Amino acid sequence: MTPPSAERPSRNGKQPLKLSFEFFPPKTDAMEERFWESVHRLAPLHPRFVSVTYGAGGSTRERTLRMVSQIHAETGIDAAAHITCVGASRDEVDQVIHAYKTAGIKRLVALRGDPPEGVGKPFVAHPQGYKSAAELVAGIRRVGDFDISVAAYPEKHAQSPNWDVEIDNLKRKLDAGASRALTQMFFDNRFYFDLRERAAKAGITAPIVPGIQPIHSFKQISSFAAKCGASMPDWVAERFEGLDEDPETHALVASAVAAEQVIELVDAGVTEFHFLTLNRSNLVLALARLLGVRPD
Ligand code: FAD
Q1: Cα–Cα distance, 174 to 148 (Å, whole number)
Q2: Is the CB of 125 under 6 A from ligand 1?
């Protein structure tokens, strides 16, 4: 007899897998409808937490707060708010942290953010602002006992001159009080394995959770990837070639590509995943199922 879902072994057959899901705050009523549909479809997977991003330069401050508060109230799932410190004084950022504390939000994803002129432009801190994510983490710690995640970059942040600076910076953020790092999207697992090795050599013991971006639309995701410094391997691009007008085959290929990626990671001992949902649930549901994580 097939055991009930809670007793089925997960893909690695040993440790239960911990999943978290990232959403972005919707801008319109139609987008909000899709947002909630996805949240409600993914909630029965019992993610460890879901997170909601913060628009460039804090442009979605109110919406992010509303979404995380409402997710927590409606689903009971821990919701984490992304927060950035670009373009704001320490006082202004501290006010946002206090607002989360007052709203009962216990998890934050602490980021420096990018300049309003765009990713790739040099970052200039606000004269009275936090100058880096590491300083922001320390600032959050002063306000309250939040569970804090920070960012990590399998292909190195574009502004890091070398890997020593990159890993030092990651260590500084974790030492300042973060519990884990969530990675930028990547499509070649070798980048992640190398990052994990470099971090371990530097004495980093906190989990480095891979950020998995299912390729809902190759056109859209390859453009996002280019903007955030994640390379798209030719072999992935080739698989989607000619599928722009064939959504069904595109979805099947997307599912296979992401499945290959996560299964290789599980086989290499990864037990935590952060799925970048782009407010869509289908591919994430399929991947969770392949990993042995089923809805109630
Ligand atoms: P930091 O860790 O402060 O580092 C940025 C760079 O500066 C690194 O290269 C680092 O090595 C270098 N650096 C820092 N301090 C020093 C120092 N003292 N000396 C030398 N070099 C230094 N952006 C948003 O606007 N909203 C979001 O919601 C959002 N969510 C994200 C979620 C994840 C999982 C990831 C990976 C990124 C996210 N971003 C988001 C993007 C992020 O804001 C940018 O990548 C930004 O450029 C860097 O942020 P950080 O927190 O990594 O910065």
Answers
A1: 9
A2: no
* Paired tokens of 163: 């890997």
pLDDT tens sequence for the chain (296 residues) = 334 343 445 566 666 899 999 999 999 999 999 999 999 999 999 999 999 999 877 678 889 999 999 999 999 999 999 999 999 999 999 999 999 999 999 999 999 998 877 777 788 889 999 999 999 999 999 999 999 999 999 999 999 999 999 999 999 999 999 999 999 999 999 999 999 999 999 999 999 999 999 999 999 999 999 999 999 999 999 999 999 999 999 999 999 999 999 999 999 999 999 999 999 999 999 999 999 998 87
32 is written with which tokens? Answer: 């909000």
**Is the distance from the beta carbon of residue 19 to the nearest atom of ligand 1 less than 6 Å?**
no
Rounded to a whole number of angstroms, the distance between the first and last alpha carbons of the chain is: 19
Ligand 1 atom at shortest distance from the alpha carbon of 51? 28
